[in-house]
Write a structure and sequence with these properties.
The complex is a heterodimer. Chain A is mostly helical. Chain A has two domains: 68 residues; 80 residues. Chain A has five helices and two strands; from the N terminus they run βααβααα. Chain B is globular. Chain B has one domain. Chain B is mostly helical. Chain B is 73% helix and 0% strand.
């Protein structure tokens, strides 16, 4: 996904302005002229300057659409792959505590393997083995309290 | 403590069975990750960090040093066999190595990569051992003014070296600095940009962020890659060490030049092994007696830039250990690990725990030596490693990233950070914003702000104080020259281009 320089400059300029407004409300340190707002304020000013320069350069540069999507966005399988990677992490964030690490891990791996075209007989076995290996490394050796979730009764 | 007792103490720390096992494991991991196209040395480091988080300081650092040294070498393997560099540091001479493979000389290409990587790595280590303690003595006299200029100098070097668009590099850096501002860790102890979220009070956790920027973005690039998979030129590899002695005798200047240039580039903030290898290859071609052979499967450039990219690793650790200023994205991650382990980089590290510093030196030496047998093994197994299918590997890495990000604070918020920064890094790279300056910005942001605020308070409104002390004045002038150099050359060009009436 390529974004036109003028558009990314505009977005960055808006970000810089939002930061400047936010830091202007930070309380000063009594008796000091530099407080918590000084440094982010300065950086945001520089960012504003740079984004204006980027807009100017983008407008003078070659003509291109505001957003050019990569070749892969026109290929449904690749688009699905991209969304699946993001969805897997979101699934982990929202469901791993309830489902437990092992169920979450096997589900994520199985879906991704399937989408990426791993031979179907191998999908589940590899998903299960890989999840158990990662679980053993982190839970047993590194003592990370990975959630058991639904499998609480089975924990080992 | 005198040097001998220090060396003995360091040896005791390093030649511990646990540390050695960690090093061999990290070496195998580094060789594997480096040899798989699409998995970089930086990614190897980022993936290791969640594991090193649970180790004592010396094995943690040992794991990172060993894995990166191996990954930088093993990036040569797919370069020679598939014409795809395993890591960006091998990209400079990938075509050359592949041409050698086509001529049936792949063992010589890989052997040269291995042997001269180890020599370059040892050279960089020697410079690190000689220079770091001496520099630390000087750095002890530094006040906030010197540190302020030093950080600015480091950041401007990161912006101006190795980016196609300086403007975009500056923007990436500023975004990194702003990310570093999140949380309570600031002069007023005021919660900045936390949006009322308690998890953001402590700032954005460095490890989940780096896992996102270096691993998730790479996975995203893999799953949308529409290129057909490359085919391995399967052939039997002969003895990779044959003829290496002859090459050493034939190209001593090239080896030395590559090592010196690599170390120097490594020391410069923002430029790492990949930059060293490109510059070295170009220099080798320029100064070669037979430049016309370059690009046709000629080993000379591989010898020189193979030495350069590994020597850059040692060089990059000099500013990292002495000033806490990373020389590249790998040391940026390593600095994060040092802080987590209570080994805050800076000159006081050399005073308070010199045995740890010397242990790091020793780790560098051991890593570069075990690289030779383990690298030989990796080359032997290379055709098998290259057959590991990416569609099985990448999802497993994704799950590993999620667990690693979770493990740092035991909350899924780490995974959220990983996802957010993975997407950010992906979009940034697609649009020509380099990621390395952003990482340096985050790592150095707190240090820069601290020294900036302290200096401002000391200066009490008089900016000239920033130039009052001799070192601070020279650093300041140097920084200003670097910062205004592009502007000055642009102005000169404009004035020259103006027609004369």
């Amino acid at each position: 996904m390529r974004i036109h320089d003028a558009l990314s400059g505009l977005l960055l300029a808006l970000l810089a302005v939002a930061i400047l407004v936010t830091v202007s409300q930070y309380p000063p340190i009594p008796g000091q002229n530099v407080g918590p707002s000084a440094f982010p304020g300065l950086v945001a000013m520089l960012l504003l300057g740079c984004s204006l320069l980027l807009i100017w350069r983008g407008l003078r540069g070659e003509r291109m659409p505001l957003v050019v999507m990569g070749a892969w966005t026109r290929s449904t399988p690749h688009l699905i792959n991209f969304l699946l990677v993001i969805a897997s992490l979101l699934f982990y964030i929202f469901c791993s505590t309830f489902l437990g690490f092992i169920i979450t891990g096997v589900l994520i791996l199985a879906v991704l393997f399937y989408a990426l075209g791993v031979r179907q007989v191998l999908v589940l076995p590899i998903a299960i083995i890989a999840t158990l290996v990662i679980h053993t490394v982190f839970y047993k050796f590194l003592r990370v309290p990975l959630p058991w979730g639904l499998l609480q009764g089975l924990h080992w | 403590m005198d040097l001998l007792t220090l060396a003995a103490a360091a040896a005791k720390l390093v030649f511990d069975p646990y540390v050695l096992v960690v090093m061999v494991g990290a070496a195998a991991f580094g060789l594997f990750v480096g040899a798989i196209p699409g998995l970089t040395a930086t990614m190897a480091t980022a993936l290791l960090v969640p594991i090193t988080f649970f180790m004592p300081p010396v094995p943690a650092v040992a794991a990172i040093v060993t894995a990166t040294a191996m990954a930088i070498f093993s990036g040569d393997i797919p370069g020679a066999l598939l014409r795809i560099p395993g890591t960006p540091a091998s990209a400079a001479y990938t075509d050359e190595a592949y041409q050698m493979t086509l001529k049936g000389q792949s063992e010589q290409a890989l052997g040269a990569g291995l042997v001269f990587s180890a020599i370059g790595g040892l050279f960089g280590t020697a410079v690190l051992i000689a220079a770091a303690p001496a520099l630390a003595e000087i750095a002890l006299k530094f006040s906030s003014f010197e540190y302020f200029w030093l950080v600015i100098l480091g950041l401007s070097a990161a912006v101006f070296i190795g980016s196609n668009s300086v403007l975009k590099a500056i923007i990436a850096l500023l975004i990194g600095l702003l990310v570093g501002c999140v949380g309570l860790d600031n002069p007023g102890g005021y919660p900045r940009f936390t949006f009322g979220n308690t998890e953001l009070m402590g700032g954005i956790s460095m490890i989940p962020m780096m896992v996102g920027m270096f691993a998730i973005s790479e996975i995203l690039r893999f799953v949308v890659n529409t290129d057909p998979p490359a085919r391995v030129l399967v052939q039997r590899l002969g003895n990779v060490f044959a003829g290496m002695w002859a090459l050493t005798k034939k190209y001593p200047t090239q080896i030395l030049r590559g090592s010196v240039l690599g170390t120097a580039v490594g020391i410069m903030p923002g430029a790492g092994a990949d930059m060293a290898s490109w510059m070295s290859y170009a220099l080798s071609k320029k100064l070669s007696k037979e430049p016309e052979k370059f690009g046709t499967g000629h080993v000379e450039g591989i010898v020189e830039s193979g030495a350069a990219n590994n020597s850059a690793l040692g060089g990059a650790w000099i500013p990292a250990l002495v000033f806490g200023i990373p020389g590249d994205s790998i040391t940026a991650i390593a600095i994060g690990v040092l802080y987590l382990k209570g080994l805050n980089p800076g000159p006081t590290l050399f005073l308070n725990s010199p045995e740890n510093v010397y242990a790091i030196f020793l780790v560098f030496i051991v890593a570069n030596i075990i690289m030779v047998p383990l690298g030989w093994l990796a080359i032997r197994l290379s055709t098998n490693i290259l057959r590991v299918p990416g569609n099985i590997l990448m999802p497993i890495i994704l799950l590993f990233c999620a667990v690693g990000a979770f493990a740092i604070n035991n909350t899924v918020f780490g995974v959220t950070i990983t996802l957010a920064f993975g997407l950010l890094a992906y979009v940034m790279e697609e649009n020509g914003f380099p990621v390395a300056p952003a990482i340096l910005g985050v790592v150095l942001g707190t240090m820069l702000e601290e020294n900036f605020v302290t200096s401002m308070i000391k200066a009490n409104g008089n900016p000239l104080v920033f130039f009052e002390r001799p070192i601070s004045a020279s650093l300041g002038v140097l920084t200003i020259i670097i910062l205004f150099w592009p502007l000055a050359t642009w102005l000169v060009r404009r004035l020259r281009a103006r027609p004369v009436y």
